Amino acid sequence: MKEKVEYNIHKFSNSVDSDIIEQIYALNQENTPEVGSLSSIKDLQNLIRLSSINYYVISQDKIIGFIICFREHSTYDSENYKFFSKEERNFLYVDRIAISHKYRRFGIGKNLYLKIEQMAVSNNLPICCEVNTDPLNEISIKFHKDFGFSEIGNRKFKDHSVAYFKKLCEY
User: Fold this and answer.
1) Which residues have CB under 8 Å from 3's CB, separation 6+?
2) What is the CA radius of gyration of the chain?
3) Which residues, in sequence order, are CB contacts of 85 under 8 Å at separation 6+?
4) N-term to C-term CA, the chain
5) From CA 32, how far away is CA 38, in angstroms rounded?
6) Measuring CA to CA, which residue among 142, 131, 138, 97 is closest to residue 117?
7) In this structure, what DSSP letter does residue 4 have?
8) Is 6 helix (H, G, I), strand (E, B) or coil?
9) Would you tell me how many other CB atoms lie within 10 Å of the CB of residue 118?
10) Does the N terminus or the C terminus of the chain have fewer Cβ atoms within 10 A?
11) Could you please report the per-residue DSSP string of 89-112?
12) Euclidean distance between CA atoms 163 and 141, whole angstroms
């Protein structure tokens, strides 16, 4: 049986401390290909600048997870984001979520999703995301389906494939 992990979830913006940004960048890179690789910390800072709502998870002064989300009308150039921009008038798009391997299966990802779901419900927004199908991210697909997401499409890229998911979040 796993021990309980003590952690706190903090909302952050593009003015977040540089040490936190460096830790988030390192965690992002450790979690590829489950999340897209970023070529530099500057790319991460730009991503955060364009995004709408973000949280990071800290345990014992170390970042162990994060989530970065976008609303509609962003200038974000992601093909996956553009899919939802064409399909939905208003939405909350989860661009990336990562949990340190050591801290998985403690409910941290679920708690991050519960945070953004509160915002989605209060604004009557669906939550949208994509999950890799090649390479297959079976754990994430199961997580999203168990959390009430439905698959609404898919796309094959040159080097990977994704399934698109949506969860309706209404009052």
Assistant:
1) none
2) 15
3) 72
4) 37
5) 9
6) 97
7) P
8) coil
9) 11
10) N
11) SS-EEEEEEEE-GGGTTSSHHHHH
12) 9
C-alpha 71/C-alpha 42 separation (Å) is 21
- Total length of the chain: 171
Query: Using one digit for the tens of pLDDT, what is the confidence trace for 67-126?
Result: 999 999 999 999 999 999 999 999 999 999 999 999 999 999 999 999 999 999 999 999
CB 75 within 8 A of CB 5: no
The amino acid at residue 115 is: K
| DSSP 8-state code for residue 3 | P
Of the candidates 99, 83, 86, 102, the residue with the CA atom closest to the CA atom of residue 3: 102
For the segment 29-77, what is each residue's pLDDT rounded down to a tens digit?
A: 999 988 999 999 999 999 999 999 999 999 999 999 999 999 999 999 9
Token code pair at residue 91 = 């939405």
Beta pairing class for 62-71 and 53-59:
antiparallel
Does this model's pTM top 0.90? My answer is yes
